[in-house]
Every structure is written in structure tokens, then in C-alpha cells.
């Protein structure tokens, strides 16, 4: 009987060790900042501004840069087949949602529209269609949130927290870019990275900017 008990304990110990080993093989190593961000978005005391401040430079900006597609290539792919372009180059926040893309390119400021709180700057991108940069204070859509592959609805406590993240990402980006955006005028040449939801065919492309740099005319 004692021998059976010893064998049982050894078998249990081996099973525990095996389970631990299997668990470790599925582990993903994360930085301290990433771990804090994961814990934050699952908290009942979630604060979207704090969460976005934690991930903006370490995760969001690198992800935007990695996903950015040159405007000439992106719009050519969209014009050829929007769904194929979306599946290859973009993201969808959910079933039936519009494709979201991150675009990069250089171009010339054609117009600045200050006629409403939805202020826009139209930029004619080289070799591509013109886009309208949304500069706020009113910005439509959540393209910055929806372009990021590591932000998903199911990771947050509720729909309100998920929506707050979209607003916080937009606010953070525009706050950082405000001095540059406020100083732009027609004729200025700029280098732009931004995200947009694909509009219905024939409608303007409204881009939420991620980076905007004034460059010397070539």
C-alpha cells in the first residue's frame, strides 16, 4: 500500500511538472510596460488616457510605422480590388466593418478648411489621390484604434472602455501634432503617416494623422 502511495505521488508530481512545461512553451515574454498595459485594460478602474500614454511610444507608434503602406501602392491596390487590398494591407475591427489602412506619403497642402470644428487639411499626395487630414477638435471615426492589431474589443471590460481608447488615441496623436498642423498653409510640402477607414467609392478619404513633418520642396 505504501509503495502504491509513493508511486501515486511520483505520478502526480510528474504530471504537474509536465503541465508547467507545456504552459511555459506557450508563454509570451512581454516588457514591463506591456504587462502594465495588459493589466490596465482589464481593470475595472480603467482610464483610457493613462492606458494610451503607456503604450503610445512603446507599442502604438512602432506598429503604425510597421503597417504604413506608401500611398501610391496602397491606393492602386484599393482601386484594383478593395477587399483584396484590405485583407493583405489593412485590418477590420469586426465583421462587416470598413477596412482600415495606414498610409504614408509626401505631398503638397492644397487647402485648409477652418469653416467648422471638423477642421481638415487637404493634401495632394504624390502619385496618389488627395486626402483630407482630420485635425480636430472634432474627428470622425476610430481609425487609429482599429489599425492597431493588439487592441481588440474583447480585451476590455466593456464597450465604453473600448470607445474611450479610440478617442484617447486620436487625442494623443493630434495633441502631439498640433504645433505642426496649426502652422500649415497651402503650398507647404509635407510627409504624412495616418490611418483611415475606407469610404464608399467616390467619397473623400479622411485621414487621422499619426505623424506630419514639413519638408523642403524638391
UniProtKB/TrEMBL annotation:
The lineage of its organism: Bacteria, Pseudomonadati, Pseudomonadota, Alphaproteobacteria, Caulobacterales. It comes from Caulobacter segnis. Keywords: Signal. Residues 1-25 form the signal peptide. This is DUF2291 domain-containing protein. Gene3D superfamilies: Envelope glycoprotein gp160, DUF2291, alpha/beta domain (2.40.50.420), Envelope glycoprotein gp160, DUF2291, helical domain (1.10.10.1260). PROSITE patterns: PROKAR_LIPOPROTEIN. Pfam families: DUF2291. It comes from the Bacteria.
